[in-house]
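$ fold --in a.seq
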Amino acid sequence: MLKVTPLLVSLLVAAACATVSLSAVAAKRTPTFKTSFDCATARLPVEKLVCQDARLAQMDLELSRLYQLALTDQRSVPPPDKVEIDQRFWIATRNQCGTQADIKTCTIRSYAERAHQLRQGSAIARTKDPSRQTEGPLAFRCAGLNALVAATFFTVEPGVVFLAWANNSVALTQAPGNPGGQYAGKDVRGSYRFWQNGSDVLFQVPGSGQMSCAAEPTS
């Protein structure tokens, strides 16, 4: 039978304190941010990432706001009942980012693209925007591209822009140290850059030089 001595008691107390201390440090390293869903029940890798990433948590709240507005828009394209179906499909697709090598980049793109779709299809989602968390889609005509480039911005930190043209699309992140409109990113085809400084807009896609773009009127 183990003999309990003052030394043994001291060692047990010290071990217990160390365990509590390590748990507290771990908790501090993984803060949880407010999201549109309950982070206490988050089980999937993407859900946990959103809960623990300040930028993605903001994007999640904004997307939820846009979605709720689109549901109230009887003129939304697609109509509200289809918007609801599309949202469920989007959540399932977003969760698949958990299988990707770069889960964060995939998740950011997923949120940016869905925000673009909701704002594009609903005038209410575009106009009822007190926080200015998102903007667009704005249209740009770029020299060298036959199709208009649609741009939807997420004003988070760092910022995100989703660009769509013809059958192509890409999500770019605001360049570090450039609080203005300089964004960069890449996909399997190569690197992209997008600059916006007032009315001056430049766009660069893989295999081309910088293209000068001009804003087009939007309805």
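$ fold --in b.seq
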Amino acid sequence: MSKPITGKNHVGERREKRPNGDIYVYERITAYNEKTRKTYTVSQKLKGKIKSGTQKIVPTRPKKRKGEGSIPGATRQHTGLTDILEWVGKASGIDDDVYASFSDYSAQLN
């Protein structure tokens, strides 16, 4: 005699061992499909991991969402050598000497 079909979801635990000895523990919710007469996984959630040599479940870090970690407002700028020299001159305080080394700027002074 088979088990009666109740239509309820079953909550179980699955353990997956990794090559380094850690065991990842997942909580899995399964349900039964009467048409195909098979069980299928409704959802699966990582509970934590058991490090090798211990017996305690340690929670893992949460997954990153798509919006996290990105740089807001980042733009790409194409700069040339004169732009870099201008920045170095302003930052170090020798911008007049840097400008004087170019022929266009020395022509404007005279």
